[in-house]
TrEMBL record:
Compositional bias of kind Basic and acidic residues: 17-29
InterPro entries assigned: HAD-like_sf, HAD_sf, HAD_SF_ppase_IIIC, MDP_1_eu_arc
Protein name: Magnesium-dependent phosphatase-1
Positions of region (Disordered): 1-29
Length: 198
């Protein structure tokens, strides 16, 4: 069927991307050799391009062909195309992944994570209405990572000064969602700050 054909093509593309991005010895030395870090991502406009706020997503959600998700009114939602392979590579480096959201509709957030197949990569989740530093604190307590072993990515600057005060390496991302080079930049910054934190 066309659906299975598209699925096969998607698998081939994903496998091709993974082959091209397989960590080299140099990459492992630069980033994979860094002791295990917890890398936390905001959700909206960071790992997917849409906003989940305002009650404009009508559940239940349904996954259709590829990574397209439909809500009850058949509005379509897609993640950024690079995210699944980015998560895969972060796990290859040996790091942990956390996801946070300030959205009160946590069931919707968690359903998107499940339907986009992010669940196999995400180790920690926090979702509630409150300052972003409180969401990061929640994951920090659960994971038992030191704050200085956490790297955080968001499309908004809000909350970053407070996180930096906690010694969390925080980076703002733009436009097309978080990219591999953003994560590698965060790991590189961590190696610069590491002597200060410790």
């Amino acid at each position: 069927s066309s659906s299975s054909s598209s699925s096969s093509e998607s698998d081939e593309v994903s496998a091709s991307v993974r082959e091209r991005t397989q960590p080299t010895a140099k990459a492992k030395h630069d980033y994979g050799n860094v002791s295990t870090k917890l890398i936390i991502f905001d959700t909206d406009k960071t790992i997917w391009p849409f906003s989940t706020e305002g009650g404009k997503i009508y559940t239940p959600l349904t996954k259709v062909q590829g990574d397209v998700i439909l809500d009850k009114k058949e509005n379509q939602y897609r993640t950024y195309p690079q995210i699944k392979d980015l998560f895969w590579k972060i796990k290859e480096y040996g790091h942990k992944i956390g996801v946070i959201s300030q959205n009160p509709e946590c069931d919707t957030i968690y359903e998107f994570i499940k339907l986009f197949d992010f669940g196999k990569y995400v180790d920690y989740k926090a979702c509630f209405v409150g300052p972003k530093q409180d969401l990061v604190r929640r994951i920090q307590r659960e994971s038992k990572f030191n704050f200085y072993d956490i790297i955080y990515f968001d499309d908004e600057h809000k909350g970053m000064p407070e996180l930096m005060e906690l010694k969390v390496t925080s980076l703002r991302i733009y436009d097309e969602g978080v990219m591999l080079q953003d994560v590698e930049r965060g790991l590189a910054l961590y190696t610069m700050y590491d002597p200060w934190w410790n």
